[in-house]
């Protein structure tokens, strides 16, 4: 057991949850193949994230917002997440997530899990359908890093006691800003930069790494 207070910040798609939400929406819109290809290139660091997100979201134009219900029903939380949250909260820690995905689907998941913080992009909607645009500034790599620092400072948690967990290139700035970076079933570009790598899909494994128990 440690007396240190930790802030853990997770990526969402393929980390907090098993899914890639943009691809789930694209499947509804009939653009899955194109979107999956862009996602893979962005996650591997081959494309600028902002540009890639706008390109992928543009393929969703005309999709009715009723698709959110169908996608939400298929979202699966990664094994070990409830145990991680409970263990962290039991030791006065905080947990947040920051996503290149969308509030329209993240808000319910974050509320149900009891997360302390979350931040994501917002989709533009008109007349009950997606316009193919994103509202406001894009949550990109720098925004993820800024969120981690902002949440730590607000809680009085030293940066050395922050942990960033992710799997793609868009997580690297956040991981660089954290005291401990963890590659979670990650692309090679992320594994090379992270302090630690976890290759089994169970996020409760973070607890013993920090000297905590669930």
Would you write up a description of this structure?
By secondary structure, this protein is α/β, with parallel strands linked by helices. It has a single domain, classed as HAD superfamily/HAD-like (Rossmann fold). It has helices at 21-29, 32-43, 49-58, 67-74, 81-90, 103-113, 141-155, 172-177, 188-191, 206-209, and strands at 7-10, 94-102, 117-126, 129-135, 162-166, 180-184, 196-198. A seven-stranded mixed β-sheet has the order 4-3-2-1-5-6-7, with helices on both faces. Helix 1 (21-29) packs antiparallel against helix 2 (32-43) and helix 2 (32-43) runs antiparallel to helix 3 (49-58). The longest helix has 15 residues, at 141-155.
Short note summarizing the structure:
By secondary structure, the chain is of the alpha/beta class.
Please describe the topology of this protein.
Blueprint: E1 7-10, H1 21-29, H2 32-43, H3 49-58, H4 67-74, H5 81-90, E2 94-102, H6 103-113, E3 117-126, E4 129-135, H7 141-155, E5 162-166, H8 172-177, E6 180-184, H9 188-191, E7 196-198, H10 206-209
Parallel strand pairs: 1-2, 1-5, 2-3, 5-6, 6-7
Antiparallel strand pairs: 3-4
Helix and strand sequence: EHHHHHEHEEHEHEHEH
- Ends distance: 11 Å
- Give the CATH level 1 class: Alpha Beta
Q: What's the number of domains?
A: 1
Number of strands: 7
CATH homologous superfamily - what is it? HAD superfamily/HAD-like
| Radius of gyration over all CA atoms, rounded | 17 Å
Total of helices: 10
Percent of residues in beta strands? 15-25%
- Sheet with the most strands, sense and barrel status: 7 strands, mixed
Instruction: State the CATH topology.
Output: Rossmann fold
Query: Architecture, CATH level 2?
Result: 3-Layer(aba) Sandwich
Low-confidence stretches: none
Helix content: 40-55%
């Amino acid at each position: 057991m440690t007396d240190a207070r930790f802030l853990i910040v997770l990526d969402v798609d393929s980390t907090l949850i098993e899914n890639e939400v943009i691809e789930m929406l694209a499947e509804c819109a009939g653009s899955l193949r194109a979107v999956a290809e862009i996602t893979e290139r962005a996650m591997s660091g081959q494309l600028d994230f902002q540009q890639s997100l706008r390109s992928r979201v543009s393929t969703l134009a005309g999709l009715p917002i009723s698709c959110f219900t169908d996608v939400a029903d298929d979202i699966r939380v990664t094994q070990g997440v409830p145990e991680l949250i409970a263990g962290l909260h039991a030791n006065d820690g905080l947990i947040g997530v920051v996503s290149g995905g969308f509030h329209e689907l993240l808000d319910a998941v974050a509320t149900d899990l009891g997360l302390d913080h979350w931040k994501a992009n917002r989709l533009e909607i008109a007349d009950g359908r997606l316009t193919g645009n994103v509202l406001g500034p894009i949550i990109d790599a720098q925004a993820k890093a800024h969120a981690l620092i902002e949440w730590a400072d607000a809680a009085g948690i030293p940066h050395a006691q922050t942990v960033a967990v992710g799997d793609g290139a868009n997580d690297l700035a956040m991981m660089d800003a954290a005291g401990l970076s963890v590659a979670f079933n990650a692309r090679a570009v992320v594994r090379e930069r992270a302090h630690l790598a976890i290759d089994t899909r169970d996020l409760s494994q973070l607890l013993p790494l920090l000297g905590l128990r669930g």
